[in-house]
Amino acid sequence: MTPSPAQHAPPGTAATADAVIAAVQSVLGPAEKFIPLHEPEFAGREWEYVKDCIDTGWVSSAGTYVDRFERDLAAYTGAGHAVAVVNGTAALHLALLLVGVKAGDEVIVPTLTFVATANAVSHIGAVPHFADVSMPTLGLDPEKLDRYLADVLTMQGGGGVNRITGRRVAAVVPMHTFGHPAEMEKLAEVCARHSLPMVEDAAESLGSTLGGRHCGTFGAVAALSFNGNKIVTTGGWRNMRSIFRRRPRSRIHGSMTTMKSASTIACRTSTPRSAARNWSG
Ligand SMILES: Cc1ncc(COP(=O)(O)O)c(C=O)c1O
Predict the structure, then answer these.
(1) How far apart, in whole angstroms, are the C-alpha atoms of residue 73 and residue 262?
(2) CATH number, domain 45-277
(3) What proportion of the chain, given as a percentage, has pLDDT over 90?
């Protein structure tokens, strides 16, 4: 396969920007008019359903539509469970708490992402640590990450500590840019090698699969966004987005192995489900 022009350009330069534009134009052709990043489209039974919510009074964080949404999302993605919370940022925040990220920890996030990925880390009082993405996938570069972690991590008390900053490195958060999957199998291997839990920022990747597996089912926990600019959007107080996970994993989730229903996910964080849904950070 011939590499795209963007793969040849040195990163962070005007030549890179030109190369990226040329690569996009080679797919889309010359733009005669502005190409929107997203355009909300309401073409089905949305009015009917919204009216039904209002008529029945279920306009907040509970009701049959929320339950159906969680069930259908889990079934569609193949995730073990899905929990609806107020937005993708809240879902990421909770996911990080679930894998044990604490204030003062360091969390690896991609240099190329929406700011919410890093914000969710900061909300905990942890520190986002930016790692390179690879040009062909626009997701975290597994080889570079592996080399970097091998260089900076020293094992102390069962956890990896960054010997330069002295902070515990607590998780890795790959993101699938515009729905293009990052190299998840390789990243999972890197995380396993360095004993780091992986939280997926799958905000932009509803419907994307890798080897037949849905984005968001590779990590211990994942977050999807249903913001107005995403593949599917939802109503709710602010907007309703969700968090989902594959299945209870005792290594990471400890007491969650006894989990019986999706509704207990947020409780593991000592955040009651209602508070999780109403997160407004
Ligand atoms: C990569 C990424 N992460 C997180 C988010 C946050 O999602 P939300 O806007 O639902 O909080 C978004 C989208 O806004 C996003 O694109």
Answers:
(1) 12
(2) 3.40.640.10
(3) 51
Residue of 204, 208, 221, 219 lying closest to 83 (CA atoms): 221
Tokens of 186: 């390789």
Residue 150 has pLDDT above 90, yes or no: yes
User: Cα of 160 to ligand 1 centre, how many Å?
Assistant: 28
pLDDT in tens, 166-211: 999 999 999 999 999 999 999 999 999 999 999 999 999 999 999 9
CA distances from 174 to 142, 206, 230, 232 (A): 10, 15, 18, 21
The atom of ligand 1 lying closest to the CA of 201 is 3
Using CA atoms, how far apart are residues 63 and 54, in angstroms rounded to an integer?
Answer: 11
Whole-number Å distance, alpha carbon 114 to ligand 1 midpoint, is 6
Pocket of ligand 1 (CB under 6 A): 87-89, 113-114, 116-117, 175, 201, 203-204, 225, 227, 241
Closest-CA residue to 170 (of 195, 147, 145): 195
pTM of the model: 0.80
Atom of ligand 1 nearest to the CA of 239: 10
Q: Any idea where the domains of the chain sit in the sequence?
A: 1-35, 45-277
- Residues 6 or more apart whose Cβ sits within 8 Å of residue 207: 179, 231
Task: Give the position, in ligand 1's atom list, of the atom nearest the Cα of 89.
Answer: 11
Atom of ligand 1 nearest to the CA of 204: 16
Token pair 């905000």: residue: 203
Answer for the pair 60, 195: CB distance below 8 angstroms, yes or no.
no
What average pLDDT does this structure show over 18-32?
80
